[in-house]
Amino acid sequence: MAQSNTGQSPRFPFISDAALEPPAEWAELRAERPVTPVTLASGDEAALLTRYDDVKSLLSDPRFTRPGPGDNAARVADTESGGVFNSEMASVMPQYGAPHLKWRRRVGKWFTAKRMNALRPGMAAMAEQLIDEMVAKGAPGDLKSGVAFPLPVWVICDMLGVPDTDRDRFAHWSDVMLSMTRYTQEEFDAAQREFGRYMGGHIAAKRAEPGEDILSALIVDTGNDGERWSDALLSATGIGLLIAGHETTANMIAKMVAMLLADRSRWERLLADPSLVRTAVEESLRADANAGVGMMRYLSEDFEVAGTVLPAGTSAMCSMAAANRDERAFADASGMDLGRSPNPHLAFGAGAHACLGQPLARTELQVVLEVLLRKLPALDLAVAPAELRRIEGLAVGGLRELPVRW
């Protein structure tokens, strides 16, 4: 249930001293208080889970889903509405049961391994072009703005049939909608309204002249039940894919490269054995010290976890990043083993709401790493790891920039 802070519970997300290091609170909570009340940016209170088994159990439980508009759930952001998690877009998208499964099946057709393999050559060519442009400007360069951000934007825009020349607008709207503390309710409402108007116009254009893209297909596809999607659902889906398809991956590309360069032996190992790229990507996802908000679940009935009974009406936050560093689930969980296999991390969640675009994110991360290793083997951080600056107040977490030399 949405409760105001009484001043007793710690504020969440926690802050870490270094951008690539996890908050100290994670280990303490996993050891002593695996289920603990925390205060969100909104001032509302939620129950935070930090152990691997507990997080996986809750995320996989079909009884519980993301909060709906009728639930008195905790708000994540400090805007009155609670941000993107409580936005119009979130209320339009089917969140549970058969409607959610139908939505995932129809959109999921575009994120199969076969489709991702078909996209790889184009991704690699774009990565090479972006790296060449960064190199031409001279060292040091910012790998985030030069490569990590524009690549996933280009890919998801191409998949949705929207012009990537509008990427600065997408970036601003996404930044506002994913922010927990940096924007006012008026700014959030404006971003949501402008993004919705833009996507509505794009869908109207696709109705008139369909292309070879996801939204065109969703407009004409009636699925197995003959149902056509409303413009509102098409728009919410397009906005959701644009936000998720570039913001999270752009941040993860930069963090992955930073983690691999922070200890030079990691980069050297990949240069010596490029076959480790796939497992190195998975380990980077597991080791990501993203101090973000994790995944919210609304408990519609009592739920017992780690010896604690959370009553119905509780808003529960699952810290997937904290769970991924649980020594009970991973040997040497605080270290990085680039050959770790199997690696059942929870970076993409679990259960019915596991990230739909994870095949795309994995492919982009692998391709960028492969091309960087091949084209810039001497790549290195241009600042000490401790000097890397984190973006504060963003739900997905990330670095402001990634200064590199080569």
UniProtKB/TrEMBL annotation:
UniProt feature coiled coil, ranges: none
Keywords: Heme, Iron, Metal-binding, Monooxygenase, Oxidoreductase
Co-factor(s): heme
UniProt keyword Oxidoreductase, yes or no: yes
Molecular function via GO: heme binding; iron ion binding; monooxygenase activity; oxidoreductase activity, acting on paired donors, with incorporation or reduction of molecular oxygen
Record InterPro entries: Cyt_P450, Cyt_P450_B, Cyt_P450_CS, Cyt_P450_sf
Extent of the signal sequence: none
UniProt pathway: Antibiotic biosynthesis; vancomycin biosynthesis
Recorded superkingdom: Bacteria
Purpose: Involved in the coupling of aromatic side chains of the heptapeptide of vancomycin.
Family: Belongs to the cytochrome P450 family.
Protein name: Cytochrome P450
